[in-house]
Amino acid sequence: MSSPSVRRVMPIIRSEALEESRDFYGLLGFEEVMNHGWIMTLASPSTPAAQISVMTSDKTAPVTPDASIEVDDVDAAYAAMRESGAEIVHPLQDEEWGVRRFFVRDPNGRVINVLSHR
């Protein structure tokens, strides 16, 4: 089985201060590219894959992830993680905002949101 290809890695900051965070990271050159009210993503205009998200809490999952990793084949990533025995924190599912994702716990206890856009 071949490994999925990584497209983007993004830290997630848990916070209730979305607007303040947008203003703060804006001072470093980030611009808002997505805002669902509970998660906001900021990106660099010159390097769009350089992103950071700020999240109050996850809308459909029991925990807030620490980071997101976008891959080209989330189903292959899910199969690889299950085969390895890694702890799946949130099952593979399609979300209404256009991603297919699952959460897995890394060896450091961090929760990683692994996703592909549909």
From TrEMBL:
Residues 5-117 form the VOC domain. PROSITE patterns: VOC. This is VOC family protein. It comes from Streptomyces nigra.
